[in-house]
Amino acid sequence: MGKYGVVRRRRQRSRAAVGHCGDDLGGCGGGQRAFPKLSKLSLSHNSMTDEGVAALFVNLTTLSELYLGGNQLFTSSWISNLTSLRAVDLSRNSLREFNGICNLHQLEYLQLGVNMLHGAINSCLGNLHQLKYLNMERNFLTGEITPNLLSNLTKLETIHLGLNNLTGTFMLSWLANSSNLAEIVLSHNYDLRIETEIVTWTPLFQLAYLNFSNCIVNRRSDGVVPTFLSTQLSISGIDLSGCSLQGKIPSWLFYNISDFILLNDNDMDLIDMDGLGGNMTSPVQVLDLSDNKISMSIPTNFGSIFQYLEYCDMSSNRVYGGIPPLAEATSLEGPCPPSIGVHRLEHLSLENNRFSGQLSPLLSKSSNLKTLNARSNHLSGIIPDGLLSFQKLGVILLGGNDLHGPIPLDLCFNNYLHFVDLSNNRFSGKIPDCFYNDFWTDLPMYFDDDPFSGIVTERMSVDFTTKGESLTYMGMPLVLMTGIDLSMNQLSGTIPPPVGFLRQLKSLNLSHNQLVGPIPETFMYMEDMESMDLSYNHLNGSLPMQLANLSFLCSFNVAYNNLSGEIPFQSQFETFDESAFEGNDNLCGEIINKTCSVLHQNQGGVLSDDAIDTALVFWSFVFGCFALGFWGTVAWLIWDKGRRKRLCSFMDALMYKLGWEFVP
């Protein structure tokens, strides 16, 4: 970035080095008389206006650095006489123009990001030959980037023009002679066409970062990956996502870039494997090839090539074959030489491809894994022992496959879980009843440190079905959300009561299984529950009244079970409609417009279990038996005179023996 590359460092310097004016602007307004040697001044994040700064800076011609970011400035004419300025920060204002800056020929650092600049970029920038840092991102700039605008700025180190509305064709060869260039950001100019291949050129620069995302790259050259990148030997990352790239991903790309490669949302169809392998290892840590048209099997030596991967996303492609081993072992497709695996891998996404076969047991050795997403493939077999027991594993997405067998007990001993999706498979047996352990009872299900760092933080997202729709979670909602989806399997047995102790669980889907028994009353402890779907099972018994007190519950479904009794009509349950309870013939209540009788009968005319269990029936039975016994005895004595006399004689003899004395 050069001398003025990091504004924050300037802001943190001592007050002796940088002038700070207080509320009494007259103290600064004295100009040269008050501060004859003032060279650096910061008034960022105040309420400065055009009128205020015009009076303030009229005589401060000795200034070399001026920081006024985060104020209320609209114009720049007041700055034109400060010709000694070498660094200017006017970001996060409301600037409509920057004409006054055109006179600052000593300027090296210019920050104009997040303003209201509109129209074409003022060509006067091309005359600021000392400029090293230029940032005009997040404005409303339109029109073309003309050849003479940047080509004369041979000292440029950083160019940020992203998030504008620039159009036309920009030839990267115009910057060939900018030997100090380290960063180019032109992202999110959706109609800007960037060409790197039309002319033959050799760059004098060595980039550290390139971002052309959501621009149109090399349309006139069949959408190839820019070949000049093969000459960039110290580049840390590239973002060419959404650039309409086509064809082959060159193998040299994986060796030249040290941190991240983002090629998602393109039309790439193949990875050139000819140059991969041997003794070479890629330094790439983040690899995103999702949403392309890659049609190939992943090579078995993938793990030995990408030993430093922390995040890998190849979802929504046409990849087929087995998932390659990611740890030291042989291939699932047959024997192959052992290879060192991706022990540092933290995020793996292979969703929506054509992977088949079993989940590799070698995944269980990727102990740093935090996210595993192999959803919507053709995987079969059981989940290998130990695969879900990683202490850092926070996201398990294996839904939409053909996995079978029991749900591993490993699931219960993980204290970092946010999302578990095992839906739409063939899992059978009981739901693990081991959720009573300390990990899940306290269930922070929140990472105690930032699980996603750097570029991963910006890109990490999880799609999860809850409240009847698929939602995308990223950023803070991703950290706070917790959900379990075991729907559309063949699970049987009862719902383990300890599940109710997952107090911070927000979404639970157990629908479309073969579960029996009652809804556990422990569900009353799910204080953060927002969505619960227990439909299409064989559950019986009554609805626990306490469920109505779950104040965040906004989606609830128990349709098509064997539930009976009265549906609570209070608190949250008042918001649900009758479709949530349909298919339960023995339910009654105001929600489904069905009056509850004293002895509610089922279709066959037999008293339901709940009717027999009511307090009224119980006490009626007690008093009935008492009345029957009492009046039966009395009637027997009244109608049989002989037995009545014998009973009286017996009572007299008994009293005499007990010492009673009677008076005739």
TrEMBL record:
Signal peptide range in chain numbering: none
Transmembrane segments: 616-639
InterPro entries noted in UniProt: Leu-rich_rpt (IPR001611), LRR_dom_sf (IPR032675), RLP_Defense_Trigger (IPR051502)
GO cellular component terms, A-Z: plasma membrane
Main location (coarse class): membrane
Location in the cell: Cell membrane
Keywords recorded for this protein, A-Z: Cell membrane, Leucine-rich repeat, Membrane, Repeat, Transmembrane, Transmembrane helix
PANTHER family: LRR RECEPTOR-LIKE SERINE_THREONINE-PROTEIN KINASE ERL1 (PTHR48062:SF51), RECEPTOR-LIKE PROTEIN 14 (PTHR48062)
Assigned protein family: Belongs to the RLP family.
Name of the protein this chain belongs to: Leucine-rich repeat-containing N-terminal plant-type domain-containing protein
Lineage: Eukaryota, Viridiplantae, Streptophyta, Embryophyta, Tracheophyta
